[in-house]
Write a structure and sequence with these properties.
146 residues, alpha+beta, Nuclear Transport Factor 2, Chain: A, 6-stranded mixed beta sheet, 5 helices
């Protein structure tokens, strides 16, 4: 049983590390039609909306890689923490960006029907914007002093 759940997480990681704009038709291999996908920016319902979201997100993406840190697997519920490294021309002038996060996955047989990503939006976007990056750095510094 543990082997089956480990294979799910391995398949999930392999899927995301191989995902590209040209491979979006493979979402049906991973997700149910009624997938609920939630991250700090979006709440998406249904595989058709998820495909549209990824189509936009991956359109100019140079690369994106997930390295697993730790995981807890179950037949119907899995958690995985990861480090994502990505390059996108609209974020940090295309320089590599490193984001730490975790994902909650709920499974129906071999397909995901609920996917929730937790990560710091500042780490992904805000700190790479000229004015906001400076401001968030200053706020963090002040908070660390108190």
């Amino acid at each position: 049983m543990a082997e089956a759940t480990n294979l799910k997480i391995e398949r999930f990681l392999h899927f995301y590390n191989a995902l590209s704009h040209d491979g979006l038709n493979m979402l049906a291999d991973m997700y149910t039609d009624d997938i609920q996908f939630v991250d700090p920016v979006h709440q998406i319902n249904g595989r058709q909306q998820l495909t549209a979201y990824f189509s936009h997100a991956y359109q100019r993406l140079v690369y994106c890689k997930f390295d697993p840190v730790s995981q807890i697997d179950g037949l119907q519920l899995s958690f995985i923490s990861w480090v994502m490294t990505l390059s996108h021309p609209a974020i940090g002038k295309g320089k590599p960006v490193v984001v730490h996060g975790c994902t909650e996955l709920r499974w129906r047989d071999e397909h995901i029907y609920y996917h929730r990503d937790y990560y710091d939006l500042t780490e992904l976007v805000y700190q790479h914007l000229p004015v906001l990056g400076w401001a968030t750095t200053k706020v963090k510094q002040r908070m660390a002093k108190t």
